[in-house]
Every structure is written in C-alpha cells, then in structure tokens.
Design brief:
330 residues; 5-stranded parallel beta sheet; 12 helices; 13 strands
C-alpha cells in the first residue's frame, strides 16, 4: 500500500475515515467507507477481528478455495493464488499471469511475499499458515471468512459472500448470489417429503465413506440447512475428508430413501487411469443392491468439482438438483 501522501491529502482522508467509522454498524458485517478522489477504505470484520482495507486492493492473493469461484465470477484480478488447488472449471487455473502459491501441502510462501499483497484472502486448507503469513507480510490485511465453529453453515456462506461483496464493491452481485442460494433452499424444503430418510457419503479411492449429519465433511451441514431426516447417526463421527469408515453393510442396513454423494476423486484425480466414478462404485456394490435409494434411482451427486470448490455457488447448484429430484422432476 502507498505509505507516503501529501499532508493535505492525508488529513482529508483521515477526516473522512473518522467520520465514516463513527457511524459504522457493529458486528460481523460492520463496515465504513471513506472516499475522495484518491482514497477509499472499507471496514469489515472477519474471524480474527476488524480490518480497514484500502479499496480497490492493489495486489490480491487468494488461498481459500471456497472463494475462488466468486472471485472469478466477479473478474477480480489476482496477483497470486493457490492455483494448484483450483478445479479446472475455474478460469484462474490456467492463467499463468497469476503466481501459483501451490497447495497447502507444500506452499510457496516466498512467492506470496514477492507478490507484495495488500490483501490476502485466507481460509480453509491454508488457515494453518496464518501466523507464518502474518509474519512474512505484516503490511497486508489477511482476511479469513471460514465458517466458524458453532455457527450455522448456511449463514456463514452468506456472511462470506456479503463481506467479499463489500471489499470488492460487488454488493449487488453478492446479494444475487445469496438470493439464489436462499431460493434453492426454499425449493428443497417445499419439495422434500418429511420423514424420507437421507444418507450422505463420500466416495474416494473406490471406497464409500459415511458422512455424519451435522458434522460430516461438506454434506454434513446439509441436513441442518434443509431439515432432512438422517437414515443413520453414529456417535463419534468426524469431519474426515474421505468420510468415516462405516461398513457398507451398515449403510445398507439403514436403507435410506435417498443417498447424497460427493465424489472426492472427481475433483482431484479424474484423469487418473485408476479413477472409478462414484456412480459406478455405488451401482456395482452388491451390499447396496437392495437399498431403496439405489433401486429407485434416488442417488444424487454433488457437482464434480465440489471437493475443491465448496462455495455458495456449488451448494446452490446442488440444492437445485435436490429440489427437482425431490419433486419428481429429475
């Protein structure tokens, strides 16, 4: 960020910022703006506190894959990003002008520093590097909008989208995304038959992993958002990215009316010769052959890129799929 300005310009900007901050609302979406011909700031509150961000930011680094599609849809220019984590469905993936920070397994934090960011959108897999990034880029604002523990997941997706809209001057676009998300939820609730039992699974490496309602990875929160009736609940369930190791026989014994599926490998190894699509794994499972959901074709798949694209758009698309299927329009 520019460190030196004329005294007069600084005084004007400071006065405007002070005035705007004085009337800012408090809470997760607190914001204030200060504007003149040279400087605009927005104040937002993320998981760690309140930040004042100069907008538009001059150098943006994106590390949270829940935000990648939103940033791309809004044509936000990135200096650097975890392109290695992006699905091929995202145009940033092939954009060589964006420095690739790599994955969370072996990130290139030196490249991040070289990008001289003034805004870093961190979260999800890269959250573990928060302290390192802060130490290496002390002048940058690091924004983390990950869904917080104990908060409703759907509300957290809305919060993330709305705050990004504030930061990038895309409030109307953010509102449209939230409206589409809410409409999809309402459509599912209207179409769903209360009492129909639902099972969620993750298929990875040819194995079927159980996803626990409420707490399970990706699909767990869907039970709460849509008021679905679980076919099976197991104590001590986890958020494991491949689901919990529950026997296929136990899944079959629960005999769900519907099965919701995330194909993990479809997002990360679909080009691998050893890849077996989740649909094939489920349909070829002898243990599941007599399960109601299998026999009636009530197996619904999340978008193929979900594992690396878990933002509000992915859930909206999936919920629209559920609404049509529950209403018998699939």
């Amino acid at each position: 960020m520019t460190k030196f300005r004329t005294a007069a310009l600084t005084a004007v900007a400071a006065a405007l910022l002070l005035s705007a901050c004085g009337g800012a609302a408090q809470g997760d979406t607190a914001q204030s703006a200060s504007t003149n011909s040279a400087t605009t700031t927005v104040q937002v509150t993320d998981n760690s506190g309140t930040h004042t961000i100069q907008v538009p930011p001059k150098s943006v680094v994106a590390l949270d894959n829940r935000t990648f599609q939103t940033l791309a849809d809004w044509d936000i220019k990135l200096t650097a990003a975890s392109r290695a984590l992006m699905p091929s469905t995202n145009p940033y993936k092939a954009d060589e002008s964006i420095v690739d920070i790599g994955t969370h397994g072996e990130p290139n934090l030196e490249a991040l520093v070289a990008a001289q960011p003034d805004l870093i959108i961190n979260g999800q897999r890269f959250t573990q590097f928060t302290a390192d990034i802060t130490r290496l880029t002390p002048e940058a604002v690091q924004l983390n909008l990950d869904p917080r523990d104990g908060a409703a997941f759907d509300a957290e997706l809305r919060r993330q989208t709305e705050i990004l809209g504030q930061v990038f001057g895309k409030e109307s676009e953010a509102a449209a995304l939230v409206d589409a998300f809410d409409d999809a939820i309402a459509d599912v609730k209207e179409a769903y038959t209360p009492g129909d039992t639902v099972m969620a699974v993750i298929v990875s490496g040819g194995n079927i992993g159980y996803v626990a309602p409420h707490v399970g990875r990706t699909l767990g929160p869907v039970f709460d958002i849509l008021d679905l009736t679980p076919a099976l609940q197991v104590e001590g369930s986890s958020e494991d990215h491949q689901g919990d190791d529950i026997s296929v026989e136990a899944i079959a014994a629960a005999n769900p009316d519907w099965i919701l599926v995330m194909d993990r490998d479809a997002a990360i190894s679909a080009d691998d010769a050893q890849y077996t699509p989740a649909q094939q794994v489920l349909e070829n499972s002898e243990a599941l052959a007599n399960v109601t959901a299998i026999k009636e074709g009530h197996v619904l798949y999340m978008p193929a890129d979900t594992y690396t694209n878990e933002g509000i758009q992915t859930y909206t698309v999936f919920f629209n799929t559920l609404a049509k299927a529950f209403a018998g329009r699939d």
